[in-house]
Amino acid sequence: xxxxxxxxxxxxxxxxETCYASLIEDLNLRDVPCxxxxxxxxxxxxIVAGGAIVKVPQIIKIVHARSAxxxxxxxxxxxxxxxxISLAYNIRQNNPISTYGETFFxxxxxxVILGLMLHYAxxxxxxxxxxxxxxxxxxxxxxxSQFKQMxxxxxxxxxxxxxxxAFLQAATIPINLFSKVPQIIxxxxxxxxxxxxxxxxxxxxxxSLARVYTTLTEVDDIIILSGFLLSTLFNCILALQMALxxxxxxxxxxxxxxxxxxxxxxxxxxxxxxxx
Length: 276
Description:
The protein has helices spanning 5-25, 32-51, 56-65, 73-93, 101-120, 124-142, 162-190, 198-218, 222-244, 265-275; strands at 144-148, 154-158. A two-stranded antiparallel sheet has the order 1-2. The protein has one domain (31-244). Helix 2 (32-51) packs parallel to helix 5, helix 2 runs antiparallel to helix 8 (198-218) and helix 8 packs antiparallel against helix 9 (222-244). It is globular and about 55 Å long. It is built from 10 helices and 2 strands; from the N terminus they run ααααααββαααα. A hairpin with a 5-residue loop joins strand 1 (144-148) and strand 2 (154-158). By secondary structure, it is mainly alpha-helical.
């Protein structure tokens, strides 16, 4: 089967000449490796597209409430740190963008959320310093330079070595896991999920599941795979909390006995004196 050029060109770009010829032109549905690869590419592009909007409902919810109550600042700080490192690592490794593209969009959205959280807490100076630090770190880790030597060979140099960056990428595994723990504890203590977005939580869980498959199919890197496997586990816990606390509202604060207020003991005494 032949597709028009405007469909063939992007299809070849996504799954390659070999798999395009096998699956589209020859309709070979027994080519399991190409089928798995095509599924992985489709999932990867879907995750990247989803990553472009996954935190938008969370941003809207915070802006609408003018509050980030129930959203853990430490969770977002740790998650953003892991995202910046992972983005730099994948770029430097020249991995297919379909295997990490959403990290770029999530990083940008996390920076917006951090800025909003600190702004509504009246900490604008802290917001500027934290956001600037993350941007500087990303530039430092991802920047490379190429020099052409006398013999014509090209040498690539970086401020942070590939070995050091690989170590930092391995460190993102515990960082990512610990980034979920404060939010899980916050939900448990409050008995509700506050301004946490259900769309974001459930999409994160689905995306991490799909990322495990795409990593297994396209990237031979045990560090990245281990991170996605453990991240899926903790995202599952958050999704279960979201379902469990779905109709839970914020717990009202209790008025202590003896405090001044309508109907309290002090008010009763005042009324007795007036009658006397």
